[in-house]
Amino acid sequence: MPDEGTYNFALMYIPAENVYYEIMVKTNSGSEEKSIVDYSMERKVIPVSPNTFYAYLQTILFGLKGLEIERSAQEIISTLESLRGDLSRFKSDFDLIGRHLYNARRCYESADRKLQSFGEKLEQVESTSPQSELEITSAEKEMNIDEQGEPSI
Question: pTM here?
Answer without folding.
Answer: 0.47
